[in-house]
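Subject line: Sequence and fold of a protein, written as structure tokens
Area: Proteins and the way their chains fold up in space.
Start of record: The labelled sequence and token lines come straight after this line.
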Amino acid sequence: MPFKIKSTMESILSKVKASGFVGFAQIGEPKGPVPVNGNKLSAAVIFVNSTVVANVLDNPIEMHTVMVRLYGDWLDEPREGSELLLADAASDLMASVAGNYTLGSTIRNVSIGEYGQTIGAEAGQIIITDKWYKIIDITIPCIVDDSDKTFAE
């Protein structure tokens, strides 16, 4: 059964870019330095998994889980400003997609406990080509209707 995961990832990327917090965003993890400048963050939309969670008549209901990784410069000063910018960006993005029924594509909504998964965030650090970044990983489980219909041909 085909899954239209690309469409889900593009819809989430569009939402990230519209947030106002991000100066650079892409699908996939960066291989080199992440362009982080001043009061803007960088972001990557990363595929996590896809499952069929139900079947209604002949139409599957799927869950496409994607992660949005927000990147901030680990060495930015003041530390409080950098930390608060990341927290505000994560909070804003989660609020804008949680329970949202207008994300586009075939996304019905973001799961808030449906099928055992919910939106969430976790902070950490990562090194990319010898540079430290503060990150926040936002897990976004998208409930998708009829994604196989978009691949019918």
About this structure: The CA atoms of residues 133 and 147 lie 35 Å apart.
